[in-house]
Write a structure and sequence with these properties.
mainly alpha, globular, 192 residues
Length: 192
């Protein structure tokens, strides 16, 4: 701490100014690597780029304030992902919105662009996205990132702080769950 002994009243303690802390290069690198993917994920649920950026910036502020705790955790990527996901949910609640619904994504799916019957594809996509609401949080995250965002297992694993094997296993279990809800012919298999 560098002291600035500017004018002080007699008997008063000298005023001190704290110099700004040097930037944490590890946090800056983490922010630069993760922010675009986090914003993309948040935008899927918030349906608004500005709201997504606001929620993610709030998450990164909290991560920065607890950066030492994040780094000392067993899984910093997983810790950050959970905090980010919670901030997105908090943002929805603060705006008096319902929990994340993916129905609008039916109109943005890759399958719609290639569909011979666009109306039938929208109906099928809506059914699928409604069924996805019944997945666990991790299953939903993995399926959204894999099938809606088009990420491979390694990229999903990096974002969530899990292994590629866990991503593949989660996709398998989520697909099985969706198949039990929708029937064997109406799942996301083969749609990437």
């Amino acid at each position: 701490m560098i002291e600035n002994r500017s004018r002080t009243r007699p008997g008063a303690e000298p005023m001190t100014q704290q110099q700004p802390q040097p930037p944490d290069h590890a946090f800056s690198a983490f922010h630069q690597m993760k922010r675009p993917r986090y914003v993309h994920y948040a935008e899927t649920f918030l349906h608004n780029r500005h709201d997504a950026e606001e929620a993610i910036d709030s998450a990164f502020e909290q991560l920065y304030l607890s950066w030492d705790k994040v780094l000392s955790s067993d899984n910093p990527d997983g810790y950050a992902w959970t905090l980010m996901r919670n901030k997105v949910t908090d943002h929805l609640r603060a705006r008096n919105r319902r929990p994340p619904l993916l129905d609008d994504e039916a109109f943005n799916m890759v399958a719609l662009r290639d569909a011979v019957d666009p109306y039938g594809q929208i109906t099928e996509s809506l059914a699928l996205l409604r069924a996805m609401r019944q997945l666990t949080e991790r299953q939903l995250d993995v399926m959204v990132m894999t099938y809606l965002h088009g990420l491979n297992a390694s990229q999903v694993a990096d974002a969530l702080g899990i292994t590629s094997a866990t991503v593949r296993s989660t996709v398998r279990h989520a697909t099985r769950r969706l198949r039990s809800i929708l029937g064997p012919d109406r799942t996301m298999e083969g749609r990437r």
